[in-house]
Protein backbone atom coordinates (compact mmCIF):
# COMPACT_ATOMS: atom_id res chain seq x y z
CA UNK A 1 0.00 0.00 0.00
CA UNK A 2 2.63 2.40 1.15
CA UNK A 3 4.94 1.39 -1.71
CA UNK A 4 2.21 2.06 -4.26
CA UNK A 5 1.65 5.58 -2.92
CA UNK A 6 5.35 6.41 -3.31
CA UNK A 7 5.28 5.03 -6.85
CA UNK A 8 2.33 7.27 -7.73
CA UNK A 9 4.05 10.36 -6.33
CA UNK A 10 7.14 9.56 -8.36
CA UNK A 11 5.15 9.12 -11.55
CA UNK A 12 3.47 12.46 -10.89
CA UNK A 13 6.83 14.27 -11.22
CA UNK A 14 7.14 15.88 -14.62
CA UNK A 15 9.70 13.99 -16.71
CA UNK A 16 10.78 17.13 -18.50
CA UNK A 17 11.63 20.15 -16.41
CA UNK A 18 10.01 23.52 -16.94
CA UNK A 19 11.41 25.15 -20.03
CA UNK A 20 12.42 28.76 -19.58
CA UNK A 21 12.17 30.99 -22.62
CA UNK A 22 15.01 33.51 -22.79
CA UNK A 23 14.32 36.61 -24.84
CA UNK A 24 17.42 37.87 -26.66
CA UNK A 25 17.25 41.47 -27.90
CA UNK A 26 18.78 42.79 -31.11
CA UNK A 27 21.82 44.91 -30.45
CA UNK A 28 20.58 47.70 -32.75
CA UNK A 29 17.05 47.84 -31.28
CA UNK A 30 15.93 51.37 -30.41
CA UNK A 31 14.87 52.45 -26.92
CA UNK A 32 11.19 52.44 -27.99
CA UNK A 33 11.48 48.93 -29.46
CA UNK A 34 13.07 47.69 -26.24
CA UNK A 35 10.39 49.41 -24.20
CA UNK A 36 7.77 47.45 -26.15
CA UNK A 37 9.31 44.16 -24.92
CA UNK A 38 9.22 45.13 -21.25
CA UNK A 39 5.67 46.46 -21.72
CA UNK A 40 4.47 43.13 -23.19
CA UNK A 41 6.08 41.23 -20.31
CA UNK A 42 4.69 43.48 -17.60
CA UNK A 43 1.18 43.59 -19.20
CA UNK A 44 1.24 39.77 -19.08
CA UNK A 45 2.22 39.94 -15.40
CA UNK A 46 5.54 38.18 -16.07
CA UNK A 47 8.50 39.15 -13.88
CA UNK A 48 11.72 38.94 -15.89
CA UNK A 49 15.31 39.71 -15.04
CA UNK A 50 17.06 42.05 -17.51
CA UNK A 51 20.65 40.86 -17.97
CA UNK A 52 23.51 42.21 -20.05
CA UNK A 53 25.61 39.22 -21.01
CA UNK A 54 28.03 38.29 -23.81
CA UNK A 55 27.30 41.60 -25.58
CA UNK A 56 23.57 41.03 -25.64
CA UNK A 57 20.63 42.31 -23.59
CA UNK A 58 18.42 39.47 -22.43
CA UNK A 59 15.23 39.03 -20.49
CA UNK A 60 15.14 35.90 -18.34
CA UNK A 61 11.57 35.31 -17.13
CA UNK A 62 10.96 33.91 -13.65
CA UNK A 63 8.36 31.45 -14.94
CA UNK A 64 7.42 29.56 -18.11
CA UNK A 65 5.74 31.71 -20.81
CA UNK A 66 2.50 30.74 -22.54
CA UNK A 67 2.84 29.93 -26.23
CA UNK A 68 0.70 32.97 -27.14
CA UNK A 69 3.02 35.24 -25.19
CA UNK A 70 6.05 33.63 -26.83
CA UNK A 71 4.57 34.33 -30.26
CA UNK A 72 3.80 37.95 -29.33
CA UNK A 73 7.35 38.46 -28.08
CA UNK A 74 8.98 36.79 -31.09
CA UNK A 75 7.09 39.16 -33.41
CA UNK A 76 8.44 42.31 -31.73
CA UNK A 77 11.02 44.37 -33.63
CA UNK A 78 13.52 44.37 -30.74
CA UNK A 79 13.52 40.59 -30.33
CA UNK A 80 16.31 38.76 -32.14
CA UNK A 81 15.29 35.31 -30.93
CA UNK A 82 13.68 33.41 -28.08
CA UNK A 83 15.77 30.50 -26.78
CA UNK A 84 14.23 27.60 -24.88
CA UNK A 85 16.44 26.54 -21.96
CA UNK A 86 15.62 23.39 -20.03
CA UNK A 87 18.45 23.59 -17.51
CA UNK A 88 17.66 25.35 -14.23
CA UNK A 89 20.76 27.48 -14.91
CA UNK A 90 20.51 29.62 -18.02
CA UNK A 91 23.59 31.74 -18.73
CA UNK A 92 25.84 28.87 -17.64
CA UNK A 93 24.09 26.37 -19.93
CA UNK A 94 25.30 24.99 -23.24
CA UNK A 95 21.74 25.49 -24.49
CA UNK A 96 22.12 29.27 -24.54
CA UNK A 97 25.85 29.30 -25.24
CA UNK A 98 27.03 26.15 -27.04
CA UNK A 99 30.69 27.16 -27.48
CA UNK A 100 33.21 26.65 -24.70
CA UNK A 101 34.07 29.89 -22.88
CA UNK A 102 37.63 31.06 -22.52
CA UNK A 103 38.54 32.92 -19.34
CA UNK A 104 41.75 34.96 -19.51
CA UNK A 105 43.79 35.77 -16.42
CA UNK A 106 47.02 37.51 -17.38
CA UNK A 107 48.58 35.29 -20.05
CA UNK A 108 46.72 32.21 -18.82
CA UNK A 109 43.65 31.07 -20.76
CA UNK A 110 41.25 28.75 -18.94
CA UNK A 111 39.35 26.55 -21.40
CA UNK A 112 42.06 26.81 -24.09
CA UNK A 113 44.39 24.19 -25.54
CA UNK A 114 46.76 23.98 -22.56
CA UNK A 115 45.85 23.17 -18.96
CA UNK A 116 46.33 26.12 -16.61
CA UNK A 117 48.32 25.45 -13.45
CA UNK A 118 47.64 27.58 -10.37
CA UNK A 119 50.09 27.08 -7.51
CA UNK A 120 51.13 28.74 -4.29
CA UNK A 121 50.77 28.46 -0.56
CA UNK A 122 47.49 28.00 1.26
CA UNK A 123 48.19 31.28 3.12
CA UNK A 124 50.46 34.22 2.53
CA UNK A 125 52.61 34.12 5.69
CA UNK A 126 55.21 36.84 5.17
CA UNK A 127 57.09 38.63 2.38
CA UNK A 128 60.01 36.19 2.19
CA UNK A 129 57.72 33.14 2.10
CA UNK A 130 55.47 34.43 -0.68
CA UNK A 131 58.41 35.71 -2.74
CA UNK A 132 60.13 32.34 -2.46
CA UNK A 133 56.90 30.55 -3.34
CA UNK A 134 56.34 32.86 -6.33
CA UNK A 135 59.83 32.16 -7.69
CA UNK A 136 59.36 28.41 -7.24
CA UNK A 137 55.91 28.54 -8.88
CA UNK A 138 57.16 30.49 -11.89
CA UNK A 139 60.23 28.25 -12.28
CA UNK A 140 58.16 25.06 -11.96
CA UNK A 141 55.65 25.76 -14.71
CA UNK A 142 52.76 27.49 -12.88
CA UNK A 143 50.76 30.10 -14.80
CA UNK A 144 48.96 31.74 -11.87
CA UNK A 145 50.14 32.34 -8.29
CA UNK A 146 47.74 31.65 -5.42
CA UNK A 147 47.88 32.67 -1.76
CA UNK A 148 45.21 33.35 0.83
CA UNK A 149 45.01 36.58 2.82
CA UNK A 150 41.51 36.04 4.19
CA UNK A 151 41.34 32.42 5.32
CA UNK A 152 38.10 30.55 6.06
CA UNK A 153 39.38 28.45 8.98
CA UNK A 154 37.13 25.96 10.74
CA UNK A 155 38.43 27.01 14.17
CA UNK A 156 38.55 30.67 15.24
CA UNK A 157 41.81 29.85 17.08
CA UNK A 158 43.65 28.74 13.90
CA UNK A 159 45.82 31.15 11.88
CA UNK A 160 43.32 33.44 10.13
CA UNK A 161 45.63 34.82 7.45
CA UNK A 162 47.29 38.21 7.05
CA UNK A 163 44.22 39.85 5.50
CA UNK A 164 44.67 42.66 3.01
CA UNK A 165 48.32 43.04 3.97
CA UNK A 166 48.87 39.47 2.77
CA UNK A 167 47.07 40.21 -0.48
CA UNK A 168 49.34 43.21 -1.12
CA UNK A 169 52.37 40.93 -0.57
CA UNK A 170 50.85 38.39 -3.00
CA UNK A 171 50.28 41.10 -5.61
CA UNK A 172 53.89 42.29 -5.31
CA UNK A 173 55.27 38.74 -5.42
CA UNK A 174 53.25 37.95 -8.56
CA UNK A 175 54.45 41.13 -10.23
CA UNK A 176 58.10 40.29 -9.41
CA UNK A 177 57.93 36.94 -11.22
CA UNK A 178 55.42 37.94 -13.91
CA UNK A 179 52.49 35.78 -12.72
CA UNK A 180 48.87 36.91 -12.26
CA UNK A 181 47.44 36.21 -8.81
CA UNK A 182 44.27 34.66 -7.39
CA UNK A 183 43.08 35.06 -3.82
CA UNK A 184 39.95 34.41 -1.80
CA UNK A 185 37.40 37.04 -0.86
CA UNK A 186 34.97 36.19 1.94
CA UNK A 187 32.97 39.37 2.47
CA UNK A 188 30.85 41.22 -0.08
CA UNK A 189 32.09 44.57 1.26
CA UNK A 190 35.69 43.60 0.44
CA UNK A 191 35.12 42.41 -3.13
CA UNK A 192 36.04 45.74 -4.73
CA UNK A 193 39.22 46.28 -2.74
CA UNK A 194 40.43 42.70 -3.26
CA UNK A 195 39.65 43.02 -6.98
CA UNK A 196 41.97 46.05 -7.12
CA UNK A 197 44.89 43.87 -6.04
CA UNK A 198 44.11 40.46 -7.58
CA UNK A 199 43.73 39.29 -11.17
CA UNK A 200 41.18 36.65 -10.18
CA UNK A 201 38.86 36.36 -7.18
CA UNK A 202 38.29 33.05 -5.44
CA UNK A 203 34.97 32.20 -3.83
CA UNK A 204 35.65 29.35 -1.42
CA UNK A 205 33.71 26.16 -0.83
CA UNK A 206 32.08 27.45 2.36
CA UNK A 207 30.83 30.55 0.56
CA UNK A 208 29.55 28.93 -2.63
CA UNK A 209 25.98 29.86 -1.73
CA UNK A 210 26.76 33.21 -0.12
CA UNK A 211 24.52 35.01 -2.59
CA UNK A 212 25.44 38.60 -1.61
CA UNK A 213 29.12 37.63 -2.09
CA UNK A 214 28.40 36.05 -5.49
CA UNK A 215 26.62 39.23 -6.60
CA UNK A 216 29.46 41.40 -5.28
CA UNK A 217 32.25 39.48 -7.05
CA UNK A 218 30.10 39.40 -10.19
CA UNK A 219 29.80 43.18 -10.17
CA UNK A 220 33.59 43.67 -9.97
CA UNK A 221 33.90 42.24 -13.51
CA UNK A 222 37.08 40.39 -12.42
CA UNK A 223 37.47 36.71 -13.36
CA UNK A 224 36.08 34.53 -10.56
CA UNK A 225 37.10 31.03 -9.53
CA UNK A 226 34.04 29.45 -7.91
CA UNK A 227 34.88 26.44 -5.78
CA UNK A 228 32.27 23.74 -5.30
CA UNK A 229 30.47 23.72 -1.95
CA UNK A 230 31.57 20.61 -0.08
CA UNK A 231 27.97 19.36 0.06
CA UNK A 232 26.64 20.88 -3.16
CA UNK A 233 25.05 19.24 -6.16
CA UNK A 234 26.11 20.21 -9.67
CA UNK A 235 22.84 22.11 -10.17
CA UNK A 236 23.42 24.12 -6.97
CA UNK A 237 26.99 24.86 -8.07
CA UNK A 238 25.93 25.96 -11.55
CA UNK A 239 23.13 28.10 -10.10
CA UNK A 240 25.73 29.75 -7.85
CA UNK A 241 27.79 30.47 -11.00
CA UNK A 242 24.59 31.85 -12.52
CA UNK A 243 24.46 34.55 -9.80
CA UNK A 244 27.87 35.81 -10.96
CA UNK A 245 26.99 35.57 -14.67
CA UNK A 246 23.67 37.36 -14.10
CA UNK A 247 25.65 40.39 -12.91
CA UNK A 248 27.09 40.61 -16.43
CA UNK A 249 30.39 38.93 -15.50
CA UNK A 250 31.08 36.13 -17.98
CA UNK A 251 34.52 35.26 -16.56
CA UNK A 252 33.75 32.33 -14.29
CA UNK A 253 35.92 29.22 -13.77
CA UNK A 254 34.51 26.30 -11.76
CA UNK A 255 36.85 24.49 -9.36
CA UNK A 256 36.04 20.97 -8.10
CA UNK A 257 37.65 20.58 -4.66
CA UNK A 258 36.05 17.44 -3.35
CA UNK A 259 32.81 16.78 -1.53
CA UNK A 260 32.34 15.42 1.97
CA UNK A 261 32.30 11.64 2.26
CA UNK A 262 32.30 9.12 5.10
CA UNK A 263 35.87 7.82 4.83
CA UNK A 264 38.41 9.61 6.98
CA UNK A 265 41.44 8.50 4.94
CA UNK A 266 41.00 11.44 2.59
CA UNK A 267 39.86 14.95 3.55
CA UNK A 268 37.12 14.90 0.90
CA UNK A 269 36.03 12.73 -2.01
CA UNK A 270 37.31 14.02 -5.34
CA UNK A 271 34.37 13.85 -7.74
CA UNK A 272 36.17 13.47 -11.06
CA UNK A 273 33.00 12.34 -12.85
CA UNK A 274 31.83 15.93 -12.57
CA UNK A 275 34.55 17.04 -14.98
CA UNK A 276 33.26 15.35 -18.17
CA UNK A 277 29.68 15.86 -16.96
CA UNK A 278 30.15 19.62 -16.56
CA UNK A 279 31.71 19.77 -20.01
CA UNK A 280 28.30 18.75 -21.37
CA UNK A 281 26.19 20.88 -19.06
CA UNK A 282 28.12 24.14 -19.19
CA UNK A 283 30.48 26.16 -21.37
CA UNK A 284 32.41 27.37 -18.31
CA UNK A 285 35.98 26.10 -17.84
CA UNK A 286 36.42 23.54 -15.05
CA UNK A 287 39.57 23.06 -12.99
CA UNK A 288 40.37 20.66 -10.14
CA UNK A 289 42.00 21.24 -6.75
CA UNK A 290 43.52 17.89 -5.70
CA UNK A 291 45.02 19.48 -2.55
CA UNK A 292 41.79 20.22 -0.67
CA UNK A 293 40.09 17.23 -2.32
CA UNK A 294 42.52 14.70 -0.87
CA UNK A 295 44.18 16.40 2.10
CA UNK A 296 47.40 14.44 1.41
CA UNK A 297 50.46 15.77 -0.39
CA UNK A 298 51.24 12.28 -1.76
CA UNK A 299 47.87 12.18 -3.53
CA UNK A 300 48.14 15.60 -5.18
CA UNK A 301 50.31 14.49 -8.11
CA UNK A 302 48.39 11.31 -9.08
CA UNK A 303 44.96 12.92 -8.66
CA UNK A 304 46.09 16.08 -10.47
CA UNK A 305 47.19 13.95 -13.42
CA UNK A 306 43.91 11.99 -13.24
CA UNK A 307 41.96 15.26 -13.35
CA UNK A 308 43.72 16.28 -16.56
CA UNK A 309 42.99 12.82 -18.01
CA UNK A 310 39.30 13.40 -17.14
CA UNK A 311 39.40 16.59 -19.22
CA UNK A 312 39.98 19.32 -16.60
CA UNK A 313 41.01 22.72 -17.98
CA UNK A 314 43.56 23.16 -15.24
CA UNK A 315 44.60 22.50 -11.66
CA UNK A 316 45.00 24.44 -8.47
CA UNK A 317 47.52 23.08 -5.97
CA UNK A 318 48.97 24.23 -2.68
CA UNK A 319 52.75 24.53 -2.87
CA UNK A 320 55.15 25.94 -0.26
CA UNK A 321 58.95 26.31 -0.34
CA UNK A 322 59.05 24.23 2.89
CA UNK A 323 55.71 22.37 3.08
CA UNK A 324 56.21 21.12 6.65
CA UNK A 325 56.48 24.71 7.89
CA UNK A 326 53.26 25.92 6.24
CA UNK A 327 51.00 27.72 8.74
CA UNK A 328 47.87 26.19 7.17
CA UNK A 329 47.13 22.97 5.27
CA UNK A 330 50.73 21.69 5.57
CA UNK A 331 49.67 18.02 5.18
CA UNK A 332 48.31 18.61 1.68
CA UNK A 333 51.01 21.04 0.52
CA UNK A 334 53.55 19.90 -2.09
CA UNK A 335 57.08 21.20 -2.69
CA UNK A 336 58.48 22.83 -5.83
CA UNK A 337 59.94 19.58 -7.19
CA UNK A 338 56.53 17.86 -7.03
CA UNK A 339 54.94 20.88 -8.74
CA UNK A 340 57.51 20.56 -11.55
CA UNK A 341 56.67 16.87 -11.96
CA UNK A 342 52.96 17.70 -11.98
CA UNK A 343 53.40 20.39 -14.65
CA UNK A 344 55.36 17.99 -16.86
CA UNK A 345 53.00 15.05 -16.41
CA UNK A 346 49.86 17.16 -16.83
CA UNK A 347 51.27 18.56 -20.10
CA UNK A 348 52.15 15.04 -21.37
CA UNK A 349 48.73 13.63 -20.47
CA UNK A 350 46.92 16.50 -22.20
CA UNK A 351 49.08 16.08 -25.33
CA UNK A 352 48.55 12.29 -25.38
CA UNK A 353 44.81 12.80 -24.94
CA UNK A 354 44.56 15.29 -27.80
CA UNK A 355 46.59 13.01 -30.07
CA UNK A 356 44.45 9.96 -29.20
CA UNK A 357 41.19 11.88 -29.63
CA UNK A 358 42.22 13.16 -33.04
CA UNK A 359 42.65 9.52 -34.16
CA UNK A 360 39.46 8.05 -32.73
CA UNK A 361 36.13 8.33 -34.60
CA UNK A 362 33.45 10.70 -33.26
CA UNK A 363 31.60 9.27 -30.26
CA UNK A 364 27.91 10.09 -29.87
CA UNK A 365 27.34 12.29 -26.80
CA UNK A 366 24.68 11.03 -24.35
CA UNK A 367 21.85 13.54 -24.06
CA UNK A 368 21.73 15.84 -21.03
CA UNK A 369 18.55 14.18 -19.78
CA UNK A 370 20.24 10.78 -19.71
CA UNK A 371 22.93 12.04 -17.34
CA UNK A 372 20.36 12.95 -14.67
CA UNK A 373 19.22 10.34 -12.20
CA UNK A 374 15.64 10.48 -10.90
CA UNK A 375 15.52 12.58 -7.71
CA UNK A 376 14.65 9.50 -5.65
CA UNK A 377 14.96 5.86 -6.71
CA UNK A 378 13.31 2.90 -5.11
CA UNK A 379 15.20 -0.27 -4.30
C1 LIG B 1 41.65 27.39 -0.35
O1 LIG B 1 41.72 27.22 -1.57
O2 LIG B 1 42.55 27.90 0.31
C2 LIG B 1 40.45 26.92 0.37
C3 LIG B 1 40.18 27.33 1.61
O3 LIG B 1 39.73 26.05 -0.34
P1 LIG B 1 38.23 25.51 -0.12
O4 LIG B 1 37.34 26.72 -0.11
O5 LIG B 1 38.02 24.62 -1.29
O6 LIG B 1 38.21 24.78 1.19
MN1 LIG C 1 44.18 25.56 2.02
What would you note in describing this structure?
By secondary structure, the chain is of the alpha/beta class. The chain has 2 domains: 14-85, Alpha-Beta Plaits, CATH 3.30.70; 103-359, Aldolase class I (TIM Barrel, Alpha-Beta Barrel). The chain is built from 13 helices and 14 strands. An 8-stranded parallel barrel has the order 7-8-9-10-11-12-13-14, surrounded by 7 helices. A 4-stranded antiparallel β-sheet has the order 2-3-1-4, with helices on one face. Helix 4 (127-139) packs parallel to helix 5 (163-177). The model is unreliable at 1-16 (pLDDT under 50). The protein binds phosphoenolpyruvate (PEP) and manganese (II) ion. Manganese (II) ion (MN) binds at residues 122, 292, 318, 328-329.
Report a brief summary of the structure.
This protein has 379 residues and is α/β, with parallel strands linked by helices. The protein has helices spanning 2-12, 31-43, 67-74, 127-139, 163-177, 191-197, 211-220, 234-245, 274-281, 290-294, 297-309, 336-359, 368-371; strands at residues 20-25, 48-53, 56-61, 79-85, 103-105, 108-110, 116-120, 144-146, 181-184, 200-203, 224-227, 252-256, 286-288, 314-318. The strands form 3 sheets. The chain has an 8-stranded parallel beta barrel with strand order 7-8-9-10-11-12-13-14, surrounded by 7 helices. A 4-stranded antiparallel β-sheet has the order 2-3-1-4, covered by helices on one side. It has a two-stranded antiparallel sheet with strand order 5-6.
Amino acid sequence: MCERRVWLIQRARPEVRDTRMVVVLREDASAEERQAVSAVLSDAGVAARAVRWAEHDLYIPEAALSSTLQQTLAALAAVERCVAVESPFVLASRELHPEKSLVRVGHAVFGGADPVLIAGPCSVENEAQINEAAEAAAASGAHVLRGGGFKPRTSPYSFQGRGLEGILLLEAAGARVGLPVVTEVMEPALAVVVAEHADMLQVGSRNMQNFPLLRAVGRTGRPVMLKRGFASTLDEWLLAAEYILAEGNAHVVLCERGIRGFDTHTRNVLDLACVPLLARLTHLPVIVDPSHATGHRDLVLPMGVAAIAAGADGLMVEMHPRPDEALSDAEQTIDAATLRALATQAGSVRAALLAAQSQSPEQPEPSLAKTRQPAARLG
